[in-house]
Amino acid sequence: MGNALQHKGLHGVGLSEILADADTPKGGLYHHFPGGKTELAVAAIEQQVADLCALLDKLLPGADPVAALELWIARAQQGLAASGFQRGCPLATVALESSAQDVAIRQALADGFAAIRARLALAFEASGRIANAAGLAALIVAAYEGALLQARVAGSVAPMELVGAALFPLLRTQLQGPPDDQATD
Amino acid sequence: MGNALQHKGLHGVGLSEILADADTPKGGLYHHFPGGKTELAVAAIEQQVADLCALLDKLLPGADPVAALELWIARAQQGLAASGFQRGCPLATVALESSAQDVAIRQALADGFAAIRARLALAFEASGRIANAAGLAALIVAAYEGALLQARVAGSVAPMELVGAALFPLLRTQLQGPPDDQATD
DNA sequence: TTGCCAACAGACCGACCGGTCTGTACAGTA
DNA sequence: TACTGTACAGACCGGTCGGTCTGTTGGCAA
């Protein structure tokens, strides 16, 4: 499910395709997911968020957060290229397809993004003096999503590298503090 | 068409819905767009890119590019809120739904993004000394897309404001030059 | 006036969509 | 051993999808 969502989005995958992938007949599905495709999607979103949070928890603590983010982006680049520029962020596709009526899905996505931002913000705060940790976290998530998107349609990791090359130096200057206001803890 | 694409994506809209919106019967469509839905989508994408480029051309020249971008983002925020958090970037949704097999669509999208990046990069270069104009352009497009995405699912412009508040000061320091390496022309 | 062809209109098509419904297999209980 | 309720299986449903096909119209050439 997660995989298919990542590739084609919620409307793009058929229930039958999902079930075929999972080698599961259709009948039993509605016992476990009475909400049908929507509930399935919510579960997949939550799973993906949990995975991503786990990855961030592995990369972020201790190290220089910018270095950790560079590693994160590098991984995403590899994943994208390895999938032949099919796999993107599993949250983003569903996010853009969803309408305001899809309350459950939007809630799951909003919670997911908030959780990711919170984790990044926490890492910035822990790494030292930082004024606008929440803003930086939102910027990074945005840059990540946007970079992935551009790279996907371009069929090349070049846009991601461009974004990284522009963003990380800026982040370093911000995090390491302007020379006249240095502080570390 | 553009509107519908923006709201629900390529797979999310039915051809019948598009035609009903346009008050056009189905028959004549295939005279003008023998390629069917795909060709229609490509045309819509190109139209949107042209519109966006026109907007940028209106905002960017002359002024401080960062101020122009702030205006641009503010407009996007207004549009998003005014649509009840339905309308996003018309390119992004289709971009994420598309697979590598959709050659024509991906090409149109890649060209579109490249054109937008080029316009931004040009503005940076024109505005003064700048090392990595292409990188900054890619970063801004990425941040824009990602911010829009987060704001949409959150049902609030707050994420966009966060991103803007983090990005624009960074851009200013970059564009106005580090204090020990100032240069203007 | 007549013949012709591009432009258009919408009825129609098979395929497939998400979802439901009946039937079955099989634990746990007495 | 007989009973029962849950978990599963897949045939089946109406609706809608993207796309095609047969008219019909209306301007233009002769």
TrEMBL record, chains A, B:
Superkingdom classification of source: Bacteria
Residue stretches making up the HTH tetR-type domain: 5-43
Keywords of the record: DNA-binding, Transcription, Transcription regulation
Domain Transcriptional regulator LmrA/YxaF-like C-terminal: 65-165
GO molecular function: DNA binding
Coiled-coil region(s): none
PANTHER family the record matches: HTH-TYPE TRANSCRIPTIONAL REGULATOR LMRA, TRANSCRIPTIONAL REGULATORY PROTEIN
Name under which the protein is recorded: TetR/AcrR family transcriptional regulator
Protein source organism: Duganella violaceipulchra
Lineage, top ranks: Bacteria, Pseudomonadati, Pseudomonadota, Betaproteobacteria, Burkholderiales
